[in-house]
């Protein structure tokens, strides 16, 4: 399945400009309007039209819903284009897929969705300074969002009330669900069904706990320091083949992310990250506040609950029904889940994405520091709650990364953070070999530095190097270093 660069998610706005500059980093200016997300309830003209969603008579048909939505969409966009293009075919199909029936959708699910959206003016008082802060690039930051507030923000995203043009200006994803609402592909409709199921489940009842979004930056380690690290390599566990991270809800989960958080969850994506964001809809709130990740950054999200199962993968993705999340819950009701979003290098545009090229110092350093930012605990409680990370073949599908090499890089980065890995090889066959190798290297005192020095030696030797023998070549180099240190 091809993983595309996220495109603008509106049917009528122009595409993202590739030359647009990034956001200002920390220390460049005091707080500005750009530091806070403009909420739809802060614009009187838009919000007056949005409130029309609850006007009598209650919405009871697709045409009534479309007509009410067009009122505010036409305030934010070209009215003629909106009237001509905006349709709800994807939403109709998602309701059929959900199985609740149109009568139940209009009498229960839609009122819950609209009620959550229209509660935003009152709920924003629970945000710091009653504003939704942007987690700016190059700035270490944490944002705590009460789940009730998050549900209201998500409802507004689904109803397309949020200013998507502003997000484009800030090098952020469009938060609009318009493409899903208009979708005609089954995998897109499946994602929308999962989002609707969230509101089918939560209804209007209070949702205890918080969603916490951390932008992690400033933890970069230079190449020489990585090579000299004496941090011990930690034991690694191996999952069964074809097993997904959902089988281990007690672990922190690596998110094989696009640099635009959420990837194509709202616009055509249907692989690991997009599926995770659809089955755990509260993760999508991060699209509102997280500009594109830089090379040395990662985003960690805690507290998002899984509400849906899924079937298939890629273009065969389907809605699998209700899911009861078995994750631990904190005293305040927060769900103790954690995803660690890290975008891999994309080798699709490289003429020869060989393992020799991927072993180059600059490539390994970039991936080490990216994984390090993702795996590093944001505080002591984070490490106590999630001492182990579930990960797998990061960047090894459409992005053409070498899976054995990425496994070793992630092992080094996690060990440097004092976190253990459980590796999910999925359809790769090297799981038993990697598990045995890790055990031998740990038992012989392997360190993060010795692992990376061994990989550098393998690279420089260029001795029949290919992905299938990387583990053997590395272990030979590691053994030679051990013999040399004992001499």
Account of the 3D structure:
The chain has 487 residues and is an alpha/beta fold. Helices cover 41% and strands 11% of the residues. It contains 20 helices and ten strands. The chain has helices spanning 44-50, 62-76, 79-85, 89-98, 102-118, 120-123, 147-158, 164-169, 178-181, 186-202, 223-228, 272-279, 286-289, 355-358, 361-375, 380-385, 403-416, 431-443, 448-461, 470-486, and strands spanning 141-146, 210-216, 236-238, 252-257, 298-302, 308-311, 318-322, 338-343, 388-392, 420-424. The strands form two sheets. Strands 1-2-5-8-4-9-10-3 form an eight-stranded mixed beta sheet, with helices on both faces. Helix 1 (44-50) runs antiparallel to helix 2 (62-76). It starts with 43 loop residues before the first helix and ends with a helix. The model is unreliable at 1-24 and 27-31 (pLDDT under 50).
